[in-house]
Design brief:
Largest sheet: 2 strands, antiparallel
Strand order of the largest sheet: 1-2
Structural class: mainly alpha
Radius of gyration: 25 Å
Organism: Penicillium frequentans
Shape: elongated
Protein name: Transcriptional regulator family: Fungal Specific TF
Number of domains: 2
């Protein structure tokens, strides 16, 4: 049944939070939508099912986000990786000062000011 796929999507959203996603809206919405569908299938009160799903989901989100915060607080980064941080993003050495001149070596012109760029896409037929 499709409801099994809905459960997998909810699990995927929960797993994303476990790996660092901090936006709980997706997981909360998916949990409530799945509870609504199940209630309609079973003939149960929809409002109650959605309310229970929201409460359970918010408790799950709180637990996961608390665990994430604790892990981040107790985590010490490898000094080598720490030197790669640029604007709170881990960036490999040399990525910010790379020479992208090789783009100009080929036949492809990436100058969007040049009207010839899109001429190749015009259908002459």
């Amino acid at each position: 049944m499709l409801i099994n796929d809905a459960h997998r999507v909810v699990q995927y959203a929960r797993d994303r939070m476990s790996y660092g996603e901090t936006n709980v809206k997706g997981y909360l919405s998916l949990s409530m939508a799945t509870a609504r569908i199940e209630a309609l299938i079973e003939g149960s009160p929809v409002e109650e099912a959605m309310s229970n799903a929201a409460q359970e989901s918010l408790n799950t989100c709180h637990r996961i986000l608390t665990e994430l915060a604790d892990r981040k607080q107790n985590h010490s980064m490898d000094p080598e990786l720490e030197s790669w941080i640029y604007h709170d993003t881990v960036t490999p050495p040399g990525a910010m000062d790379s020479d992208f001149g090789f783009f100009n070596d080929g036949p492809f012109n990436i100058d969007f000011g040049n009207s010839n760029l899109f001429q190749q896409w015009i259908d002459d037929s």
